[in-house]
Write a structure and sequence with these properties.
The complex is a heterodimer of chains A (333) and B (239).
Chain A: E1 2-6, E2 11-14, H1 34-43, E3 52-56, E4 61-64, E5 68-76, E6 80-81, E7 84-85, E8 92-94, E9 99-101, E10 107-115, E11 149-150, H2 157-170, E12 175-177, E13 196-200, H3 209-217, E14 220-226, E15 230-234, E16 249-250, E17 255-257, E18 265-267, E19 274-275, E20 279-283, H4 288-292, E21 299-300, E22 302-304, H5 307-332
Chain B: E1 4-7, E2 12-16, H1 23-38, E3 44-49, E4 53-58, H2 63-68, H3 72-85, E5 97-104, H4 112-118, H5 123-131, E6 135-140, E7 147-150, E8 165-168, E9 172-176, E10 179-182, E11 187-189, E12 192-196, E13 217-222, H6 225-233
Parallel strand pairs in B: 5-13
Antiparallel strand pairs in B: 1-2, 2-4, 3-4, 5-12, 6-7, 6-13, 8-11, 9-10, 9-12
The chains are: A alpha+beta (333), B alpha+beta (239).
Chain lengths: 333, 239
């Protein structure tokens, strides 16, 4: 079990999202940075879709009441065990009674904590993700609070093997880190300096030529009005060249919509299912983890690619992850 | 059936069936939805119906697409086209009529007076017009189980509030422009609130988590404050 000593700014249980119920108006939710979420699970021998804790900007303080295999991925929020800095992107066996805490946010803004076996929570409509506004999913439908205790499910045989290997060296130490880690080439925080790739949105052609240029030539800042639902950006104003009226239609993870005042909004994990603002662009699926790690004050640039290219780089990324899975399972023996 | 397919991000296809809200287009939307329900394509993640469109999300990396070699969008479009081309609009079955009890005005409907004044009507007239109309559910969206309904009389139309309220309780019945709706969960919102229903529209633990569905007809039944309270005290608010 783990016990929450301090909850941090916003710590929630998330998985890959609640798909299948958007037709009822039920939002998807799920991890903002799904790449980091998936890798966190793989590192501890879980299936990649198992729930992890999404930790935002200011991390929690967590006590492990039993020896636990964990991993941390995503943003570097300076994690420590009993005061000693620990590494991201590798399996760590934490001894019973040790305390995980966080410090300043160095890169990104969301870290993912996976535990071997994963957290035991009730799934609602097929997902363990916390849907805060409706109060369902995750841990009692809410963000974690002081004193919460989360149990773990039964772990996989590969989790057991990793623990077996590491426990010989653990002894009375507070924790032991595996000697290997994931090459951060495919981590989300490393790519933050590259422009975010987008494809044309459904109403791209409704916008003035100048607006299209602005979107791809200027920088847009993530404002403080940004959360899991969406980021409000500030930059050059985007305007329509048509008076056409929008009828509400589906929106997606990474939809860039533009309300009348001209500042774009990027819709993210907790987006509504439908919306009535014109959509100028849509972030390529592979770059969603990059924007998910961008924090208020950061500047973003967008680059237009074709749908075909976007699907190709997606398939390449999935191939990388497949290779990674094979690599990890070999290391786990 | 007339339709157009458009890319929706890199993992979706929007099936556009029209550009204006109408009952005819809604029939087409429902025909496509029932086609998708009957043909559970393995590569389809889910679909999102709206007023004039149905958006299909798909798994770009699904093995069917990979084996074929052409890029996934092209293949998914092809499969949808085959199905949609042959769709004929059946005479719709009789729509389901769902009666929603509402306690109008007072603390549960703080904007009822505003709606009356705005339209030069008495409060009683607003209630009478609102509850004697039958509404058509065009789509579910905005919030879980939230129905976008058409058919409201323009005599009781009212603009949204200039500053949205931070929290509107679940069950609140509101008016925004020429639309009326029922808040399904507590959320911020700018609709003029004229009453509240004790019925739960969003039922996360039911097989179908939304009481209402596109195509339903809705009528409102006025209840007293005491009836509202009694209903609220019941354990099972699902009727």
């Amino acid at each position: 079990m783990i016990k929450i000593i301090k909850p941090g700014l916003l710590t929630t249980v998330q998985d890959l999202g609640r798909y299948g119920s958007q037709k009822y108006g039920v939002i998807v939710s799920g991890a903002m940075d799904q790449l980091s979420h998936r890798i966190a699970n793989l590192l501890v021998g879980n299936d990649e879709s198992k729930p992890t804790l999404e930790i935002t900007l200011t991390g929690p303080v967590i006590e492990f009441t039993e020896t636990t295999l964990i991993s941390l991925t995503g943003g570097n929020l300076s994690p420590k065990i009993n005061g000693c800095s620990i590494d991201l992107w590798r399996p760590i066996l934490v001894n019973k009674g040790s305390i995980l805490s966080f410090g300043p946010c160095k890169t990104g803004c969301r870290a993912y904590l996976a535990v071997a076996g994963s957290f035991q929570v009730t799934t609602v409509m097929g997902s363990a993700s916390t849907y805060l506004r409706a109060g369902i999913g995750g841990f009692l439908g809410r963000a974690l609070k002081v004193g919460d205790v989360l149990s773990m499910e039964r772990m996989s045989s590969s989790s057991k093997r990793i623990i077996q290997r590491l426990s010989t060296e653990l002894g009375k130490r507070d924790y032991i880190e595996a000697t290997w880690k994931i090459d951060p080439v495919i981590s989300s925080c490393n790519m933050g300096k590259q422009p975010i790739r987008v494809i044309e949105g459904r109403q791209y052609h409704w916008f003035t030529e100048k607006s299209k240029q602005t979107l791809f030539q200027e920088e847009f800042m993530v404002t403080s009005q940004s959360d899991r639902m969406g980021y409000r950006l500030k930059g050059g104003s985007l305007t329509l060249a048509t008076e056409e009226e929008m009828v509400s239609e589906a929106v997606g993870f990474g939809t860039i919509q533009v309300p009348a005042e001209g500042n774009p909004i990027v819709l993210l994990a907790d987006r509504q299912t439908t919306g009535g603002y014109p959509k100028i662009a849509q972030i390529a699926t592979v770059d969603l983890p990059v924007i998910a790690q961008a924090k208020p004050g950061e500047k973003l640039q967008f680059q237009l690619i074709s749908l075909k290219e976007s699907q190709l780089i997606y398939l390449e990324r999935e191939e990388q992850i497949r290779q990674l899975k094979i690599g990890i399972s070999l290391l786990h023996g | 059936m007339d339709y157009q397919l458009h890319p929706f991000g890199d993992n979706g296809i929007m099936i556009e069936l029209g550009t204006t809200i109408s009952l005819d287009i809604q029939k087409k939307v429902r025909a496509v939805v029932s086609f998708l329900d009957q043909n559970q394509f393995e590569w389809m993640i889910e679909y999102i119906p709206a007023f004039t469109s149905v958006t299909v999300l798909y798994d770009i990396g699904h093995h069917e697409f990979i084996q074929d070699g052409r890029y996934p969008y092209e293949q998914a479009c092809e499969k949808l086209k085959e199905g949609i081309a042959g769709l004929v609009l059946e005479e719709a079955q009789l729509p389901r009529v769902v009666e929603i009890p509402v306690c109008y005005g007072g603390e549960l409907g703080p904007d009822l007076d505003f709606v009356a004044r705005h339209n030069g009507l008495s409060v009683e007239e607003v209630i009478r017009i609102h509850k004697t109309t039958t509404y058509n559910v065009h789509m579910i969206g905005f919030a879980p189980g939230f129905p976008y309904m058409g058919g409201m009389s323009e005599k009781i139309a009212a603009p949204r509030k200039e500053t949205p309220r931070l929290a509107i309780p679940a069950g609140s019945v509101g008016i925004a422009g020429k639309q009326t709706g029922i808040y399904s969960i507590e959320t911020p919102g700018g609709w003029q609130i004229i009453g509240r229903s004790p019925i739960q529209l969003f039922r996360p633990f039911n097989n179908t988590p939304s009481l209402l569905q596109a195509g339903d007809l809705v009528s409102f039944k006025e209840i007293t404050y005491q009836e509202y309270i009694d209903w609220e005290d019941r354990d099972d608010k699902n009727y």
